[in-house]
Amino acid sequence: MPSTVVHAGFALLLAAGLLGAYYDRRALAVLLVVLVLPEADSFLGPIMPGAHRTVGHNFVFPAVAALALYVDTRVRERSWLRDRLSPRWIAVAWVALCVHAFAHVAIDWTHLDGVNAFWPLRDRFFQLDGKAVYSTADGFVQTFVDVRVDPESGSRTVDAGAGGTSESVHVNNPVQPRDPDVDVEEPVDRRFPIANSGWRLYLIGLGLFALVARRFQGDGVADDA
Description:
The chain is mainly alpha-helical. It has one domain (4-116, 172-217). Helices cover 38% and strands 7% of the residues. The chain has helices spanning 4-18, 25-36, 60-75, 87-109, 198-217; strands spanning 132-135, 139-142, 146-149, 156-159. The strands form two sheets. Strands 1-2 form a two-stranded antiparallel ribbon. Strands 3-4 form a two-stranded antiparallel ribbon. The longest helix is centred in the middle third of the chain and has 23 residues, at 87-109. Keywords: Hydrolase, Membrane, Transmembrane, Transmembrane helix. The chain crosses the membrane at residues 6-23, 28-48, 54-71, 91-112. It comes from Halorubrum ezzemoulense. InterPro entries: YdjM-like. One of its GO terms (molecular function) is hydrolase activity.
């Protein structure tokens, strides 16, 4: 699975691009804490089947948080958060939501069994997998979303990478390195991945490059820090 280091590499890119003048060590520290929080669902595995890639890996919680943040800071006449936080930390909160959704959950969406995207509203894993190509023979072809029409009934079915549920899906992790429902006599091998492929190592390096590049550009700390 993509390691926390890989997620951090992408998070650094988002921070460099979105934080603007609020980019500094304090903001980065907050973003990195938010980044690793989803992995806490690994520790729920022993008491909740399929907890990993479910409790902390869905798009429902960040969507609700984003809606609440938008209503409080943009819609309400008097914002509860703005009365207590400076504009810096409101901006950091928005970037933190982006980091959680795009630098962690979305990346895991593309790997192994994907994520339980709509939990707790719906218990179903989804994986983003497929290809999109333009062929001179076949035209545009994509397999990310499979649409099939029954020739007899005319009914249409759409498959966007749906898989099993939290009861049937187990994603190996250092806390539970193998499916607890499968009896294996071999010794437990707990692996803590760093970079399992070239593109992941590249993403780590690119994130570090962005970190160093922003450092050379200056801290850019806003006046209201």
